[in-house]
Amino acid sequence: MCGRFTITLPLDELIVRYLIFENRLAKFAPNYNVAPMQFIPAVITGKQGNRLGELRWGLVPSWAKEDKIGGGMINARAESLTEKPAYRKLLTSRRCLIPADGFYEWQQREGGKQPFRIVMKDGGLFSFAGLYDIWSDPHGNKLATCTIITTEPNSLMAEIHTRMPAILRPEHEAEWLAREHADAASLLKLLQPYEAAKMRAYPVSTAVGNVRNNSKELLEAVN
Length: 223
What we know:
Keywords: Covalent protein-DNA linkage, DNA damage, DNA-binding, Hydrolase, Lyase, Protease
InterPro entries: SRAP, SRAP-like
Number of helices: 4
Pfam families: SRAP (PF02586)
Organism: Paenibacillus rhizolycopersici
Largest sheet: 9 strands, mixed
Shape: globular
Helix content: 10-25%
Radius of gyration: 17 Å
Enzyme class: hydrolase
């Protein structure tokens, strides 16, 4: 699964990287320990171009009776997107990019679990493939939520965990966002394990396991 990540780069870099036409973020600050049920930056395509806004992490399908379901839908397996009612229609109609510059995963060891931070070797920004939906409560209040798609691990991740987030190659991001693209088969082909040679992983403090900890010290490597 993908349960924690980081987004610490400046807002200006996101705007340039994703060719943002409209920025709807009310505020933006580095987040060293992004956790489920938080509002996170996300990119979708509107009629006039790419929009940057916020989605709550943990998908609440539009047909759900209550929003509590979101806590159990932070990830969606790429292999079963066309089989699950919550994701089937979203794959062809409501796709998003979730910017990140690293993510955390825990490796099981004899003495317990060791967290790792996984990043690109160049330290740059990358994009999780996501799906989003809009839910309304009985009073008509709307809630926009998302899920991060996961796939099989590449050779780097296989030594840490059995899954990894589906990271889109930069040349595939526009295709993933394209509003007119509704071919599920070709979209699924984009959700491949990212090239391991372009990534690196390093151990970090177990403090990252506590969602209340959110400082740049969490990014530091430990022995």
